[in-house]
């Protein structure tokens, strides 16, 4: 269970983070946790740098100097003539038809204009889209701290501000991520599509710009571009295909070869990818066209002997017959010429086909020499497992061998290099090449090979994906997609346990980045692997359930989190015992869930029990024990027992400085909590001073985008509000609301609270109509999400009161609060004081009510 040590740390951070969302300053600040960006002036967006008007070129591939001038170029020029206005078009068609090569040539032709910026984005999925936007952001000089939707929107706006620009969105095959066809189907499945923005929201549409899409999906016509602005890229003409064949073979076709040439091109369906692969093979091996044609026909005949079911399944996989057969001929030659290249290609079938770092290629080659589970359990060996001649000098430079293998794969059109200016080498595999490789390995007589290569990919990804630390975030992002896909194939090699360990590290990274939506399917997959292979009662399976519960809690899905934690706690008590650290952690997290639901008495009882257990098991100075003291202080704060909270925080802070140091995240967090306690006692200058110090430390240690950093920014805004500095408070609160909508969705409790507290600032400035509008929206959302009797709903009813009917509203709110929370609860007491303050001067009374809130 070696992987459980970092998992425990991640759960510790998750528990502390979520607890802080709802504790401490929560009673007065309304839980202003959000995602965003912060600079020294407390502005969300950094100003773009002055240099930005120079044209930028970000094209990931070198120009194909031998590109065939197809009819499509003329059609594209007609659709996208030089224009000062925004325009878009799409290239759609079968995989391997040359869409990307056409777009690439178009991009280089547009680069002839020295004023035109050209950007290339892989649009396969959200991960590749975001990664390429980060490259663009860096090139454009946008702030390093930008992340998530804020980064995507900043890039969109910066591109739109360019005087002339072209954006290529390549391989947009899954157009659902751009909002096409997703909304209604998702609603039918009970999903809330408003929770997540479509990537289409981040596609530039400003003046003097052009967007060119490529996709396999015909529906792109009429959805993302106009019905008449999509070009169907079909097979080449015979003339175009012949020119491509001659170009790649590096020789002209003799007259006596014409008949065989036309027959070969027909067998290849005039598909550019198949023609290129065949030509690369013939050029590399000096094989005559007639001989290659005979070899291809024999393969096709064998292919047609497959059962109809297999053939249909193959066609549905969108791997064309011509690509499959040319792939087979070429790969057999590669196996004979360079076994390492053969092994690398098959291993890469089980990772992402885009942005493959050279380190991943080299690691896959290295893993070939290590015995797999299959080799350990049987003496049989597949021919594919054999590596380089065992008598070679063991000190020979392995890097040279890997590079030679990669070059060979490039010669056969299996890999192509990226040239985006990254610090590291990276490659891409055509999607059809990868699909053909996967299909070949899926055949009945190659299951052993499939087992082997999927395990090699998993091992390589596991070896390269680091433990999550801020200084390694860039490294984690490089391998994120590869790790997820390699883990997804783990069922082939019975590597689910190892895959679950890898996914747990991926989950920890996504937690640190606050990417809750991406984290959930990772946690689910890890839990499914462990439950299937280890059983429901294995400690690692239980721990995966706890990870999933923490994700639900962070997403504001409190009932699901509570249910999971209750189940986890019962299993841990049964399997591990009451005093095991994991059991105690689950008790603490269940208390955090109660706290999130404003069930403070239950939370306090649990926190007291957890603190006693940790003192007994771990000792007074263990970080977890100190953290439990902070949890208890947070509950005192929320219950309005500020003196007790302050005393506890002072003790916690002294211990943390002694045990963890001044710059540990827990120490800094406690400084922020102490500042919140000062705030609630009306000691605003002390609170402000602490928050400023906390912000400086958090930006240095955690970064601008860490949730703790942003939470402190929100609390500082609340302190400004309390001092009557409404304009400063409003500016930050507006930014908070925008960020929460982007990151968490409109219906997340934190987003709703941000709306409510922005309304309070409007009300304090006498902007009653804006406040009323926000309050009504908040009340509707909270009734929908939380129910009529939830404390936050009652608070929203209270907040809405400002007109003559306010007295009745507050009276109703007070009665509900007294029944649900008890008359002594701080919220009920605030309602009671507001009733006493209500008088004939409505504006004055509104200000008084606001100060009470």
TrEMBL record:
Domain of life: Eukaryota
TPR repeats by residue range: 542-575, 626-659, 668-701, 752-785
UniProt xrefs under InterPro entries: NLR-like, P-loop_NTPase, TPR-like_helical_dom_sf, TPR_rpt
Protein keywords: TPR repeat
Gene3D superfamilies: P-loop containing nucleotide triphosphate hydrolases, Tetratricopeptide repeat domain
SUPFAM superfamilies: P-loop containing nucleoside triphosphate hydrolases, TPR-like
Pfam family name, one: TPR_10
Ranges in a coiled coil: none
PANTHER family: AAA+ ATPASE DOMAIN-CONTAINING PROTEIN-RELATED, ATP/GTP-BINDING PROTEIN-RELATED
Protein name: NB-ARC domain and tetratricopeptide repeat-containing NOD-like receptor
